[in-house]
Fold Aspartokinase.
Amino acid sequence: MGRVVLKFGGTSVGTIEKIKKTADQAIREFKKGNQVVVVVSAMGKSTDRLVDMALEISDNPSKREMDMLLSTGEQVTISLLSMALHEQNYEAVSYTGWQAGITTEPIASNARILDIDTETIQDALTQGKIVIVAGFQGISADREITTLGRGGSDTTAVALAAALEADKCSICTDVVGVFTTDPRYIKNARKLNQVTYDEMLELANLGAGVLHPRAVEYAKNYRIPLEVRASHEDEAGTMIEEEMTMENTKVVRGIAFEDKITRVTIHWDKKENMRVSKVFTTLAEHNIDVDIIIQGITGLGHGNLSFTIKTKALLETLAVLEEHQETLQYAKLESEQNLAKVSIVGSGMVSNPGVAAHMFEALTDNDIAIKMISTSEIKVSTVVDEKKMIRAAQVLHDTFELED
Amino acid sequence: MGRVVLKFGGTSVGTIEKIKKTADQAIREFKKGNQVVVVVSAMGKSTDRLVDMALEISDNPSKREMDMLLSTGEQVTISLLSMALHEQNYEAVSYTGWQAGITTEPIASNARILDIDTETIQDALTQGKIVIVAGFQGISADREITTLGRGGSDTTAVALAAALEADKCSICTDVVGVFTTDPRYIKNARKLNQVTYDEMLELANLGAGVLHPRAVEYAKNYRIPLEVRASHEDEAGTMIEEEMTMENTKVVRGIAFEDKITRVTIHWDKKENMRVSKVFTTLAEHNIDVDIIIQGITGLGHGNLSFTIKTKALLETLAVLEEHQETLQYAKLESEQNLAKVSIVGSGMVSNPGVAAHMFEALTDNDIAIKMISTSEIKVSTVVDEKKMIRAAQVLHDTFELED
């Protein structure tokens, strides 16, 4: 007998009809002979409605009271889902975060899970019950209700799977799995059967927020097999695991891409004036995220530094840099908008040094100019013209034969 | 420094605007130098909305899961009220039933409070915070969320006042207090400054459910001074206490009345066939409430028994009695509809034997026929024609000079 944790987000339990379908899916897993734990979020727009009420009272409501308020959302869903299972004559019991033994840091709105005392859940599972747990919430040591912040319900599911030593944690969502690239733009994108945790982290922006990075990291640390699959359909999704089976021999597993990138370049007259680390600490102090970084020194003793940011952060970035010109001692600032990032991702890359060259060649052969390059052990990213982004993704998808 | 508990029902916190006004009232009490605990119900129609969702899933949802579902209603209100107090720069903290230390019987939907561990609340009060507690809910010894059933939030408030040894428990509602009689029908009805617990129990049907009898009994047992007063107005209401001050010397304190009463009469040919207790156990088994009971034996050895019921229960009452005719051995059944009950209430009655006679005389002088009489230590009830009910109440209100 196996033990599985299923997680359903707000959209998947957004209506009474969908809650009934969620019950059906839990029953399918139960009928396979599994012990089943279901983690659910608040119903669809209910969190927004609660937030709106709070904002009618205060522009800046207390985080402690927001947790008190928002944690009711999941509590509604768990009780309704439990009723839906009873209605089909299955034994089920719902637990809030604190009833499920989920202890967190004493930090309102953005707590991390510290420990899970699984005794209550284990007892219920042993009695043959389907257990339903409120996602996104827990309790601090001083008995305060806390919420987990971004990606919260995914994290609850993965942490419960770890604490319960589950065989699998399935994240049931509105996509059928993780794809080789974004199927909305690349027609021959293919659903992957397997990816590694690291690949998943790099592919995170494919399929628009399928899984929160914090949950993937948690799963990686505790070696929990994660599945991304469609809600309310009995079809296997994509498994995210450490080890790949033999058939998954492709070096490149997926193509990620992202538009609305801007490159900022800082020029110094003398390389001894370059204050590279000061640039990035200054930007970090203003919460400006920097992605690809390239540092160059020309033969004449001049120096420059290029980095990419999201275009929407450009005005603030330039303002911050200009404000600190004296400290940073640079001579000139430049920026280029309308760029995009296109990356190939795959764990096998580290042992296949020719992959990057193969990528550059394919892009160049197709008249796609490469403006920046950045590499890691499992990823090679290039910056290209925004207009050529989709074609670049398509070229690379074909070049590395991801359709098959 | 005093300590007060304020309770606001669903209507009094039904909108964001009303929650803000509730905050104002709590602040007024706080500014008087009191420690303030506020108990609130779910916002207006929110409980109905939750019940509707449950009924979309199941005709007969699990009571345990209903408690899980409905207890979110008060949790929303407490957090919003706390935010409203913060917004006016007062320190406030909200607690769910379990956080407030309210332990109940392990009975879903209709639990009674067993114990309150006030440590958390006392600490917060000592720190100068206004404490907000979710009414209607608690936790059982096995960590299940429970709700208190009818009159729940009133009971929470009174029980908290007892456990905290508060100086007063104010039930803030949509009436300004308890009246000598129903002001909707009797123009010169007057707000009472004081009534005793027992009088309050007898006057309970005045002002349509101002206070739940369970809460009044609780207050009586623990000698908690109770106040019924208007929400959102800074005006004294009616105090409900054991001892009356000297100025309250009237023997009759109030006139209660109720229409839609039916008298049922059972006739036996032989008095030895009379199965009086069997009649009432049979009716009780079918959850039929009986009010006034009169048993008569005629000189010829015949016997009869009359009792009143609410008219809406008539069809079922007759059906039950007919079904059990063989066991009950009666000869004939009669019923008279369109009756009303009019009562005078006052603790002083027990030591004033002439009061009942005074009442009957006043009614008779005004051509109001008395069809049944029932007396207790603090109440005399008469059954009259429904058409004459209001006039009877007015006559008695004038006779006993309640206007002054």
